[in-house]
Amino acid sequence: MAVFVGEIYSQKVVRALEELAAAERAFAAETVKVGFRDGFIKYFADDGIGFGPEPQRTKEVLQKRPAPTGPRTLMFNWQPMFGDISQADDLGYTTGPVLYTDLSANPRPPRHGMYFSVWQKQPDGTWKVAIDMGVDTPAAVAPIDTAFVSARPVVRGKSSNVGDFRSLDSMFSESISKTSAPKAYGSLLYDEFRVHRKGMMPITDKASLGNCLRRRHEIETSGFRRFGPCGTCRHNDDGSTAGRLRASSMTWGELLKRITPGSRR
Fold this sequence. Notes:
Helix content: 25-40%
Shape: globular
Order of helices and strands: HHEEHEEEEEEHHHHEEEE
CATH class of the largest domain: Alpha Beta
CATH architecture of the largest domain: Roll
Number of domains: 2
Radius of gyration: 19 Å
CATH topology of the largest domain: Nuclear Transport Factor 2, Chain: A
């Protein structure tokens, strides 16, 4: 079946993606207003995982911490600039720039970063964060008020069981261990892929990714300790995974989407 990237999402999916982007903006605004602890408690799912860098159930961890009483010394704000959503409109992601502002008496210059969040729709229809991670960048990737752009619409394949997703996930790990990271990633990357690495600007083209992976030789020679699938949508056309590289302290996450029947990227 031919894939026409100009195919239009159903109005239902378009509205759901707009709702998801709005939820991300509301999350950021709430955190700017009330601070990290209370903002994240409000918008994280009960089983949502954050990386700092170790994986943890963010809501559970933060609820155990006492609410801060003194003046805030750091404020961070962010904005969704790119995202996509499943055909079932119950699982999606956004990513965008982060701005860290020092509020202390002797403030240091602002710092910049990129976040990546996977959101899952709850039974009551609200969106909650299922996975969240971020990296520092050497400069601003985009203005903090940047506009949101959705991933190009594609023809999605028919549903399949979750075993299909898990098999692909395991095959990807084995391919990296047996061949190399550039080859494994090259075989599965979607055109609009994004790779975020600490201290680097986002990587969005295969040549740059290949160069990065070859420089970081530990990625090529090590396997993964996967935490396993972290979420799949009802139609099983999108899903997320997370894990850690054995030979480094790098945590990572992936979101895979079905492009055509039997094909995922």
